[in-house]
């Protein structure tokens, strides 16, 4: 299906918005700036694509300390104002997020001030606690290195009090959370004097979040959907959403693309939606969701798809505050007995390998890799990797960083596979595994 930007034509100034409990209304579609591996996309490419997005009609941009795109986004916004694409920074809605290692009382305000300095801005529109977990403080506040061994329970009350201070000081117009379950929101609401304006979570046709949406609606919290295309090509998900035969069928019948069907579906749920594309034509395509509707039959069929979450086990570790996926999501993850997510082994294993590389930044990997692995790893950057026969066991266990990363990788692998794969496939994986020495 060719890209259709019909609904995107003349988008400028017409983007639908959602009123929030604090701050400016949030444009219903925003552009994500997390590309994988995190921080690896050329700054000039990101800057250019943000400018093209503003030209196309995007007014809402999503970044985070860990994405390493705050400064680039700030540059692009300054350039957009200079070029007259927008009258001022105030015409844009900018969200950023607090990194785990800074999610401690006393470190929230400095972290936001650092973000604002990088972005050359006086305020954010929305500042989010990125995940409901903290990491031991790093010596270097700029360090975004992730280690499961350093995960600790968040002092949620202390952190939220300082988030509230950020809003009172005018450094952000609104504050919110990300990846919070109903239970964690309940806890937060029990001491909050300013309610979170938004909760940013994974939402797409395979992760519908009905319970959380209902809860947030009742509490006046806007649900904001990330990975609406299932995080196509990213290590925190796979390509199942965009390869879904039902969504393909609906797209064909409506004369739209699968991406547009996903985005329209999220939009119809009442959520704001953050979609990432660094491709100019897909950026426009993703705005083409406002002048048509799904049918009741489409909606019904989508409601019967099996459910799963992408970000399953990233913060689950034997020494951390969450020992199981269920604990992290407070038992609110979608029905595991009905979890029909069965990605092929190639996707699953290369996904895990790449995830830990992204967190330490590919460019910082110190261990020289055998040529075969390097070649195969390079292939995995291609989002269409499923189509290519990759030697998955080699990928899983080769860790380009340090021995501790290897452990993180193995733990993640075990938890992920336990949920994602059936026994027979697991046995096949074990039989074929070649552990790196
Ligand atoms: N709060 C959190 O914990 C969290 C977690 C994950 C993501 N996020 C935010 O949400 C944003 C979006 O999520 P995401 O990046 O995970 O996933 P996504 O938006 O579902 O998918 C992005 C992927 O889809 C591709 N794509 C985009 N439009 C397409 C189209 N029309 N047709 C085919 N492919 C298309 C992109 O490739 P091209 O660039 O090549 O088009 C990219 O590979 C992130 O950038 C980030 O800002 C937040």
Features of the shown structure:
8-stranded parallel barrel, binds NADP nicotinamide-adenine-dinucleotide phosphate, TIM Barrel, 437 residues, single chain, NADP_OxRdtase_dom, 2 domains, alpha/beta, 16 helices, 39% helix, 3''-deamino-3''-oxonicotianamine reductase activity, Aldo/ket_reductase_CS, 12 strands, NADP-dependent oxidoreductase domain-containing protein
Task: Give the structural class.
Answer: alpha/beta
What is the CA-based Rg, rounded? 21 Å
CATH class of the largest domain: Alpha Beta
Kindly give the count of domains. Answer: 2
Distance between the termini: 46 Å
Q: Which fold name is given in CATH as the topology of the largest domain?
A: TIM Barrel
Determine the mean pLDDT. Answer: 78
Strand order, biggest sheet? 3-4-5-6-9-10-11-12
Share of helix among residues?
25-40%
In this entry the ligands are: NADP nicotinamide-adenine-dinucleotide phosphate
CATH architecture of the largest domain: Alpha-Beta Barrel
Total beta strands:
12
The percent range for strand residues is 5-15%
Low-confidence stretches: 6-10, 335-437
């Amino acid at each position: 299906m060719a890209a259709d930007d019909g609904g995107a034509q003349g988008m400028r100034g017409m983007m639908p918005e959602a009123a929030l409990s604090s701050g400016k209304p949030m444009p219903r579609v925003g552009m994500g700036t997390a590309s994988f591996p995190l921080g690896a996309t050329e700054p000039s490419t990101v800057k250019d694509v943000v400018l093209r997005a503003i030209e196309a009609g995007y007014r809402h941009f999503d970044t985070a300390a860990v994405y390493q795109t705050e400064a680039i986004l700030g540059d692009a916004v300054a350039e957009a104002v200079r070029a007259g694409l927008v009258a001022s920074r105030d015409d844009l809605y900018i969200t950023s997020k607090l990194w785990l290692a800074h999610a401690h009382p006393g470190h929230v305000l400095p972290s936001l001030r650092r973000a604002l300095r990088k972005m050359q801005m006086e305020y954010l529109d929305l500042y989010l606690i990125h995940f409901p977990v903290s990491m031991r403080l790093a010596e270097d506040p700029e360090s975004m290195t992730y280690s499961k061994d350093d995960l600790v329970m968040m002092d949620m009350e202390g952190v939220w009090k300082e988030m509230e201070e950020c809003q009172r000081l005018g450094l952000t117009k609104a504050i919110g959370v990300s990846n919070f379950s109903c239970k964690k929101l309940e806890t937060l609401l029990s001491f909050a004097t300013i309610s979170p304006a938004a909760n940013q979570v994974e939402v797409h046709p395979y992760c519908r979040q009905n319970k959380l949406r209902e809860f947030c609606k009742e509490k006046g919290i806007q649900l904001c959907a990330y990975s609406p295309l299932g995080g196509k090509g990213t290590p925190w998900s796979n390509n199942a959403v965009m390869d879904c035969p039902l969504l393909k069928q609906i797209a064909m019948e409506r004369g739209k693309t699968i991406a547009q069907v996903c985005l329209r579906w999220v939009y119809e749920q009442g959520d704001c939606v953050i979609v990432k594309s660094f491709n100019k034509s897909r950026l426009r395509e993703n705005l083409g969701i406002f002048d048509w509707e799904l049918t009741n039959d489409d909606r019904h069929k989508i409601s019967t798809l099996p459910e799963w979450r992408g970000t399953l086990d990233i913060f689950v570790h034997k020494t951390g505050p969450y020992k199981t996926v269920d604990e992290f999501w407070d038992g609110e993850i979608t029905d595991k007995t009905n979890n029909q997510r069965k990605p092929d082994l190639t996707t699953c294993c290369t996904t895990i390998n790449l995830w830990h590389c992204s967190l330490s930044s590919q460019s910082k990997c110190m261990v020289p890799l055998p040529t075969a692995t390097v070649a195969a790893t390079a292939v995995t950057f291609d989002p269409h990797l499923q189509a290519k026969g990759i030697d998955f066991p080699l990928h899983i266990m080769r860790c380009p960083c340090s021995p501790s990363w290897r452990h993180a990788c193995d733990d993640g692998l075990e938890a992920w596979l336990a949920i994602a794969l059936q026994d027979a496939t697991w046995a096949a994986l074990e039989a074929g595994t070649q552990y790196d020495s």
